[in-house]
Amino acid sequence: MSQDVLILKGIEKSFGETRVLQGIDLHIAQGEFLTLLGSSGCGKTTTIRIVAGLETPDAGQVLLDGEDVTDKEPYQRNVNTVFQNYALFPHMNVEENIGYGLKLKKKSKQQIHEAVMEALKLVQLEGYEKRMPSELSGGQRQRVAIARSIINEPKVLLLDEPLGALDLQLRRQMQLELKRLQKKLGITFIYITHDQEEALNMSDRIAVMKDGRFVQIGTAHEIYDHPRTAYVARFVGNANIIHVDGQTLAVRSENIQLMSQKMDEMDRLPENVDHQKSFVGGLPGMIKEKSFVGGMLRIVIALEDGTEVIASRHGIDADWEPGQSCFVYWEPQAGVTVEEE
After folding, report:
1. Contacts of 55 (CB under 8 A, 6+ apart)
2. Mean per-residue pLDDT, 153-158
3. Residue 146 near residue 123 (C-beta atoms within 8 A)
4. Distance CA 130, CA 140 (A)
């Protein structure tokens, strides 16, 4: 089992009357890619600023490689940060930007040049060393920022929504490149995002945050398929939260089946439903709206208790229109019992 490179113990932080972190604990293994996932204001950025030494916790400890660094300055920690806005020096070319940290460490010009060339190779920017930041695309500037961070061989690299300013296609490309780079270098990455797809695609583990606490920490599979709370199910899986027989269930929209009448009143199941499957539910509702979102048909159903349920479909479904009555069903294994906050 990999040794923990970073441990947070009982970290608390308030700004004025606002309690931002509420006694969080976290163990991160050497070489792990861990993502802090949550909505704006949940405490993600404050957490990594405390790890970086840019904020001091009101209580708790930060242990880096077994050493208590809670009160140490940022330059006394083997930790680097990559920000969304790149933070490159506009008056320096690519080589000067990347080598700046080694220059501060009084390395020789030859050592700096060799290290910069190796870093450029890792981020696939060979030949760009003499270009100015203004001559680079957004994705290229972000790669330079990453190269500048990894050249110092940090124990932990903190990435605060580094791909947030990129367009969707470039963002997806950079996700793959970041994961490749992280595995090749073996550096521990702590990555911040509010994008669930990004977290699921890139992470060894995900720590879901809400109101300054970790509500669930686990692998992408654990978080997505076995959410513990209604919040995690909604935020990570876009699940419907349905109350049935005293239970709170999370059912993803692609698993929702709509029928025109109760199943026990039907002579046979519709052709598009597998006759061998057993279904649960049979909750009466009414179609509220129908729209296309990202290539998927989105049907919103209002149940009798006021709950809104979303059913997703590929293609065009002419069977359902707003105002129609229906019954909502799902397969038994598709409903995951969760805790309601």
Report:
1. 13, 46, 49
2. 91
3. yes
4. 13
Give 29's contacts (C-beta < 8 A, 6+ positions apart).
1, 2, 3, 4, 5, 188
Q: In order of start, what are the domains of the chain with their CATH numbers?
A: 4-230 (3.40.50.300), 240-337 (2.40.50.100)
The pair of three-digit structure tokens given for residue 133, joined into one six-digit string = 């930041």
- Percentage of the chain lying above the pLDDT 70 cut: 94
Q: How confident is the model at residue 267 (pLDDT cuts 50, 70, 90)?
A: very low
Reference 258, options 233, 292, 286; nearest CA is: 286
Q: Using 50, 70 and 90 to split pLDDT, how confident is the model at 22?
A: very high
Residues 6 or more apart in contact with residue 261 via CB below 8 angstroms: 327
Burial class (CB in 10 A: 0-12, 13-18, 19+), 185: middle
The amino acid occupying position 264 is D
Amino acid at 70: T
Taking a C-beta distance cutoff of 8 angstroms, is the pair 311, 252 a contact? no
- Residue 165 corresponds to which tokens in the numbers above? 């300013």
Cβ-contact 122, 150 below 8 angstroms = yes
Best CA proximity match to 311, nearest among 332, 333, 334: 334
pLDDT given at position 270 = 52
Contact 205, 218 (CB under 8 A): yes
pTM: 0.85
